[in-house]
Design brief:
There is one protein chain. The chain is of the alpha+beta class. The protein folds into three domains: about 1-205, PAS domain (Beta-Lactamase), CATH 3.30.450; about 220-305, Signal transduction histidine kinase, dimerisation/phosphotransfer (DHp) domain (Helix Hairpins, Orthogonal Bundle), CATH 1.10.287.130; about 310-460, Heat Shock Protein 90 (2-Layer Sandwich), CATH 3.30.565. It has helices spanning about 5-15, 20-70, 160-205, 220-270, 280-305, 320-330, 350-365, 410-415, 420-430, 460-464; strands spanning about 85-90, 95-100, 120-125, 130-140, 145-155, 315, 335-340, 345, 370-380, 380-390, 435-440, 445-455. It has a five-stranded antiparallel sheet with strand order 2-1-5-4-3. A hairpin with a 2-residue loop joins strand 9 and strand 10. The chain is rod-shaped. It is found in: Cell membrane. Its EC number is 2.7.13.3. GO terms for molecular function: phosphorelay sensor kinase activity. Keywords: Kinase, Membrane, Phosphoprotein, Transferase, Transmembrane, Transmembrane helix, Two-component regulatory system.
Amino acid sequence: MKNREPWVSAFRRDIRSSVRGRATVLTVVVSAVILALALFGAGVVLRGWFSDQNEDLTERTVEATVHAIDRGERRNPIPVGTDEASMIQVVGLDGRVLAASEELQARPALVVPGGNTLINRKVCSNPGVRCMWVYGVRIRDSVYGQDAMVLAASPLPLLTTGWVLSLILAGLWAAVLTLIGWWTWRTIGLALEPVDRIRKEVVEIGKGDLSRRVPVPPTGGHIQRLAEAVNETLAQREEANTRERRFVSDASHDLRNPIAGIQARLEVALEEPEDYQWRPMLREALNDLQRLSAIVHDLLELSRLDSRAPMPMKQIDLAELARREVARRMPGVAIVPRLESGVIVQANPVRLSRVLNNLLNNAERHADTRIDVLVAREDGQARLEVLDDGSGIPPDVRERVFERFSRLAESKKRDPQGTGLGLPIAREIAEIYGGSLTIQDSSKGARFVLRLPLYREPSGDEAQ
């Protein structure tokens, strides 16, 4: 009993609260109503069918007996044909049995005719004989005298009696309901078994091993799609964790260098005599602080982008934005703008300016003589390109430049102080506003292409 109690408690809890239990109960209740109506109808039909069979049999028997009497045959016991009822009586007006078949010899009249000329009913009054269907016809003149009645009876099957049939139908009703309940419980349990396996695996995965995946049942439908969605989410979570670990590691490394440089220079400075020229050392320490500040600023910006912190948006003409930012650049590599006016997007101006400046900074580091800036419409989108005439980026490493703290060898050579966060920040901003930032093929140099949705004036319904 001690081992059964937890199982019984769990079963009761599942019946009350689980989808499996509620579905089983609902199925059994609906089936009980439908089955009760069906069995009731079947019982009525079954009784009617047996009654019709007995009525036909007794009626044929009476007709055959009457014809024999009309032919002048008078025998006792009355012979019975193979297709006739075995119980036949000829009864006078006073209820005296004038003749009978062998089975009813020395038995009282099945029915006292009285004034009836036709009898066709169920009779259950004779002791020792089960209920039967009795059919009788009065004959005015016969060898048996005036107004004798010919009766034929056929015992009704025990199945048609009220309590027996009701008991059988009730037992059948209970058995079918039990089968339906068991089958529903088992079928739903088998259908939900993959979900339980997924749940157990997710619990184990939650303990720390994100490389594991939940089993995907080859059943098709919702459960398979659920398992695939869970695995996709786990893969994204694992990738995010990997990126986070790499980000922390790279950030720690990049922050450690300027901090260590500042600390070393200050320690050296404290060891120098009082008349030492401090300015070159302070300038180097300031450079390290500026690099440290740039890294911290980029990290804060990435944190805001990752959290999708909202910033006010407005309609921006990309040509005007590009023209303004190009004009602010310090003299250096020639920048050639080719700008189509009226290319309007909706974004935060500060963030969009940062995207363009990050692309221009990258182009200036790698360009030999020229940078092209292009703004145009293309396939219902706004397109901004920044193209330099440098050595370009090989196709197999183009996605690497968008990884945080990732820097190619040439980039490190041309700008040792870079953080490796400018291009990842630019792509994050582009994706926040429903766009993309990619590197496309070009005849020479690197070609960065920013695409953003064009701003569309809201219709009257949308404005309301």
